[in-house]
Amino acid sequence: MVGKGAKAMLNGAVPSEATKKDQNLKRGNWGNQIEFVLTSVGYAVGLGNVWRFPYLCYRNGGGAFMFPYFIMLTFCGIPLFFMELSFGQFASQGCLGVWRISPMFKGVGYGMMVVSTYIGIYYNVVICIAFYYFFSSMTPVLPWAYCSNPWNTPDCAGVLDASNITNGSRPPALPGNLSHALNHTLQRTSPSEEYWRLYVLKLSDDIGNFGEVRLPLLGCLGVSWVVVFLCLIRGVKSSGKVVYFTATFPYVVLTILFIRGVTLEGAFTGIMYYLTPQWDKILEAKVWGDAASQIFYSLGCAWGGLITMASYNKFHNNCYRDSVIITITNCATSVYAGFVIFSILGFMASHLGVDVSRVADHGPGLAFVAYPEALTLLPISPLWSLLFFFMLILLGLGTQFCLLETLVTAIVDEVGNEWILQKKTYVTLGVAVAGFLLGIPLTSQAGIYWLLLMDNYAASFSLVVISCIMCVSIMYIYGKCPSLRPPVSRPLACPRCPAGLLTSLSRAPQLLPGHPDDAGIPTAPLLPDLLALRLSSYHLSPGSGPPSSPLESSSLRAAPGAERALPPAPTAAESPQAW
């Protein structure tokens, strides 16, 4: 039977401590829990959900890809997401400060900062291109709709140029419709592709030939960084208010585009191409690798942002509930975005008389070439273009907020004195200016080459390596089997068991809200304390010697001067058998 002291420990207090402070007045907290959930959703739901997942899904077996995708979500995504939220919430530190638990692994925190820096640099360049397209859509006719512009080549063949297929440079089309002519045009390039390559980017012929800086893109990059800085000027206090709009309005736009897309001719064909399962694909290792990489990239695991955002939670927040809500919302958004994308692409393929695979693309090719061209076929195309690129801007900003806050919080927590806490706005400004300067080469004529290079290698296998090292350091280096713990430790999973975190996940719903602590105050489930009890077993066991770290000697959230007391040493009859 669990005694009063054990109940208190499960609710976040120890026998010598009547209650613990739920708020961190020094660093600050979220205004309310909705702000944290919306910020985390905005962080997880980004451009990859729109331009990467649908393409991976149809390339890797359609509906069959959902099987490895949700397997990876269940056994990799949710446990890692929950572990990072618990880690940051318990420690109330950024991705560097949390590694006081094991300073020899602080390099993991630096690795997270490097990943966030790489992604933050090129991510805002993508946002600035979306800004450029958004401003360019404020015209009666979209500039990439026809081949009659000065930058177009003789090979240009627009889907709307039915009477002049190749800008007058080729003989008239044979009898038949537009699709017949286009199928016989072997060197066809769309006006949207030429607008992207020859006008927006003025693409150079080599990655080493930087050429000139594209001033329109440079101006939009400045606008992007100014918007990000203004939204983070007061840290989570200001960004927590902005996400009420940036995290919710993309769903409004997605729904509008979905309703419009499914009413078009050929939409059903595109959706079936997206969902039709090819079960033989799931036997390929590459499919499982793509599913794992998409989970890591989409959820933001090992970027440092989850630890940072959770560090501003109140100590008694139910982060298990939040982790389940956020991860499921993220994956559901990816699936939903696939319907939006492939309904429009199916309409475009039907209009051209080609297979959907001929018009499907991913990455910048989907966002700035294929989808904009499909939008030109819709009535009032500038309106749909404005909505689409505004959605891309909001999706990008939601992720960029957390990337910048991750770097700023890591720097402020690492210095840790009162002066830098008061000057945090200047730190944010300095990081934003540095990000702008480092992004200037990506606005050159060779910038897209470097952007794709960073996108392919900055957040791919490195995330898996960082996550593995983090799990090993927490569960096997810092943690130890609770063989000499009081009976309260028996329900907890042994840290040496690979399924230890999943066992904690399965038991977490048993900790229902409303159980009073020693002071009779109802508290919420303390899942960070569950993780802490497991991780700190070595330091709380008798005979382990005096603690050597602030994280080991007292609660990170305890009131000044209120130290945690060790539980009473168990008798021989009370000690559980060693694992």
From TrEMBL:
This is Transporter. It comes from Monodon monoceros (Narwhal). Belongs to the sodium:neurotransmitter symporter (SNF) (TC 2.A.22) family. SLC6A9 subfamily. Disulfide bonds join 147-156. GO terms for molecular function: amino acid:sodium symporter activity; metal ion binding. The lineage of its organism: Eukaryota, Metazoa, Chordata, Craniata, Vertebrata. It is a multi-pass membrane protein. It is found in: Cell membrane. Na(+) 1 binds at residues 42, 45, 298, 330, 395. One of its GO terms (biological process) is amino acid import across plasma membrane. GO terms for cellular component: plasma membrane. The keyword Cell membrane applies. The chain crosses the membrane at residues 36-54, 66-87, 108-135, 215-236, 248-275, 295-312, 324-349, 383-404, 425-451, 457-478. It holds the Pfam family SNF. Keywords: Amino-acid transport, Cell membrane, Disulfide bond, Membrane, Metal-binding, Neurotransmitter transport, Sodium, Symport, Transmembrane, Transmembrane helix, Transport. Na(+) 2 binds at residues 44, 49. Residues 541-579 are annotated as: Disordered. InterPro entries: Na/ntran_symport, Na/ntran_symport_glycine_GLY1, SNS_sf. It catalyses: glycine(out) + chloride(out) + 2 Na(+)(out) = glycine(in) + chloride(in) + 2 Na(+)(in).
